[in-house]
Amino acid sequence: MLHHIPGRDLQDRALAGIARVLCPGGLLLGTYGEDTPSRRALHDGDVFEPIDPAGFADRLRSAGFDEPVVDSNGDRFRFRARSRALPH
Fold first, then answer.
1. Which residues span the domain enclosing 20?
2. How much is the mean pLDDT over the chain?
3. What one-character DSSP code corresponds to residue 4?
4. What secondary structure letter does DSSP report for 28?
5. Is 88 part of any domain?
6. Would you state the pLDDT for residue 43?
């Protein structure tokens, strides 16, 4: 529910925290609703900071993940990425 975290910086810190606690090579899987008028209406009166699927793979890499894949259908997107392995 990253869209309930106010601001991209805090969202990215949350992603980095997830990467940190996953086992090395651990898999993060998710699905997300894209920014649509109906989704905005659903969140009227609460925090709604939508995630842009176009830049999400880069955000995952920056947070400590490898091999990010993001697939969008225009309404929802799914993603997967692996936490970085420990250095040898």
1. 2-83
2. 92
3. G
4. E
5. no
6. 87
